[in-house]
Amino acid sequence: MVRFVSYILYLTIFSLLGCSVGPDYIPPEVTLPEHYSQSETKEIDLSSLSQYWQQFDDQTLNILVEKGLEKNLNLQQAYERVEQSLARLGLSKSEFLPDIDFSAGVERRRRSSAVASAIRTNTNDFISVGGFLNWELDLLGRLRRLKESAAASLEASIEEQRATRILLISQIASSYIDFRSTKALIELSKENVRTQKESLELASQLHKAGIVPEVDVFQAESNLGETEATVPSFRISHQRAKNRLAVLLGDLPQIIIDLLPESAEIPEIAKLNVDSLPLDVLTQRPDVRMAERNLASRHALIGAAKAEYFPIISLPGRISFEALNNFDKAFRADSLAYTLGPAVDLNLYDFGRVSNQVDLAESESREAELNYKEAVLIAVEEVENALVKISEEKIRTKSLQDSVKASKKSVELTKSLYKSGLTDFQNVLDIERRLFSQEINLAQSQSELAKGYVELYRALGGGWTKEEAPSDNA
User: Which single residue of 66, 170, 215, 408 has CA 20 to 30 Å from 44?
Assistant: First the structure.
């Protein structure tokens, strides 16, 4: 008996300290460029990544982001996926422990006369109260690989939640910029409508005085109507931006309206100064880290699949109190019965099932590695795209500002010449249309520049800190 117990103890210790079948995971190396192709990194402060939207110095935007982080439904779903992964990890851990079941039963058995004659009676009451145990001894690490995979999946879901947070903040900031910029476009259109109404009134007065032909009036009306037609389209875009903000904040448009300002000023980000931006910050992006953790999870499943080639050793057992025809004897020491001993389960031939499972696990691991490498490339692409957008939009904005300034002066001078009869009305219409177009382009360029900074900070993984991720403590 002592030798048997010692044998069981050795098996148990070996299962806890045994090896794990399959290749151990080694994170793949990724190639990053030596430097960014753009120079805008000198304006990016890494210390501001976690709350970069505050660089716009806009209290409304700060409130919207705070409300979105609290109520956004997509982010809440991401938190639930973390909880699901945590539960799966708990399930994988429980596989290391024995299954213990309890059973109790009383049954009356009537045997045939032939059998009953041998045991003196053909009717008996059989009482049994006890439990069953089954414990898989993880000698080859199948369960350890499954636990390793579940742990990596949990870490991937945490990174997914962080990536969802980053995306949400950037969407709120971009939609807010759209809301403000479309408001600016509406105001610009209205201002140009007022200016062109003055030109129409001027042309009408000069026509009544017999100084200019009636065609000048018609041309002024045509120009005015074309400008007035832009207002509804800008209002549509404005309402869409508000509706998008409502969804991002997990609310209805009618409810968030009080949070939104009437101002048409387009937000601008503050200028920041640092010397350089390290490229390896990209590998800390949550989506890149998520891809790497998914790779680790898939890699661990290769070992779990290969373990199926080998026998599964378990320790089944049963202990119970049993009695026949006498309830009073059911719980006496001499009524105790048990069975205990190791069992081996070996699949001799499975028609290629295990081989196909291994091939599948290895292919999924290779796919996950390719996905990880692609995630790094996409990260570089997004940063480069944002940098070139900021660089070029700055140039475009400055050129448009100079153009608008010159066109405004040109409108005043051209109207003065028209009143004096020194130029025709077509020149007035052309310069007014040009001014309107340039002002619209300037507002759109300012909007794209602001969104370029949002895109850059998002591409750098801005919008979370480890302390802000409660799932780490799960």
Answer: 66
Tokens of 99: 């299954």
Q: Please list the residues that pair with 336 across neighbouring strands.
A: 321
* Per-residue tokens: 190: 């209205």
φ, ψ of residue 109 to 5 degrees: the values are: -115, 135
Q: Distance between CA 402 and CA 394 in Å, rounded?
A: 13
Q: What is the CATH number of domain 31-96+144-309+361-473?
A: 1.20.1600.10
Q: Which of 21-30, 96-105, 108-117 has the lowest mean pLDDT?
A: 108-117
Measured CA to CA, the distance from residue 202 to residue 199 in angstroms comes to 5
pLDDT tens digit sequence for 323-382? 766 666 667 766 777 787 778 887 778 888 989 999 999 999 999 999 999 999 999 899
Identify the helix (H) or strand (E) that includes residue 107: strand 99-110
What is the percent of the chain where pLDDT is above 70?
81
Two tokens, residue 262 = 């009437």
Spatial CB neighbours of 58, under 8 Å, sequence gap ≥ 6: 176, 267
Burial class (CB in 10 A: 0-12, 13-18, 19+), 408: middle
Rounded Cα gap, residues 165 and 65, in angstroms: 10
Is residue 193 within 8 Å of 220, Cβ to Cβ? no
Measured between alpha carbons, how far is 460 from 246 in angstroms, rounded to an integer? Answer: 26
Start-to-end Cα distance in the chain: 44
Task: Find tokens 């971009």 and name the residue.
Answer: 174
